[in-house]
Amino acid sequence: MTASRALGDLRLLSPQLDHEILPDPPSFKKEEIGSAQASGDLTPILFEYYKYVGIVVSVIGHILLESSSYRSINKLHYAILTGLLNRCARLVFSNVATCHEGQFAEATVIVDRCIFESAIKISWFCKNPNDTKFVRFLAEGLRSDLELRDHIQKKIEERHGAIMTIEDRMLRSIRNSFVAAELTAQQIAETKRLPSLADMMIELGLSRLDYVVGQRLGSHHVHGTWVSLLTHYLDADVENGIHNFKPKVEPCEPHKNQFLHTSIVLLDCLGHYIEFAFADDDTAGRWVDFLAALRHDILDVNISSALADTEYLSDAKS
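Below the sequence we write its predicted structure tokens.
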């Protein structure tokens, strides 16, 4: 399916966006894909799909709230969801700019971990949506601001009401965040905490293994664990089982799975968003078909690698 057919009424987009922002998906000759599959180097092709998925996320995230295709959506719910979509798109674009020459995977894996978490939250909001989920999200993000506000106010009280310029600026910023969320300090403090990402994924029908692979392994690179150091920051000469370490000099090349996995997670969350947001079944159906075809093409490119990865090294012994 072409992108223009999926997009439909171009008036749905923010005026800053031209309809040309959504070109048709990447197209490769069978010979190109076959050659890449034969060599095992699928990274360049999957990188092109990764870029394209970022564009699709950006376009969908810029469909206006007043669109006739949308059902009636609470303005804060819309702000949260489109904010997360825009976050995902911009982080994809930042990764493209960072690693387009095949370097700096040590940085881009951290960003992809952030994209993964936001995409899961979008799916969680949109599947079995209710107002409580969104309120919990707002309150969760404001608890640190609430704690900071309390510390600042305590310091002001200790000085008998004398307020520093920086304190006044911070308090106004915190107050503005509360007002924008339409929550009071008491409501923020009393609102139930968000479930863990693992629990969100279970609600979405995903497995604990999905969580470990998508979130926990990505956390290595966010927090700089031993696994992260071994992967991206250290080289080792191994002699008689002894590792002699030295700092890694060369930047790291991105792995194809980085582009594959993030693209699929983003397409899945877009599917949930469209089912949640669109009242127009025809428009929603075109988008769903378009995303499904794109998902299929991406997985089809990787099929030879997936088959090789799932071969058994030896027969099971009875």
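The beta strands are 234-239, 242-247.
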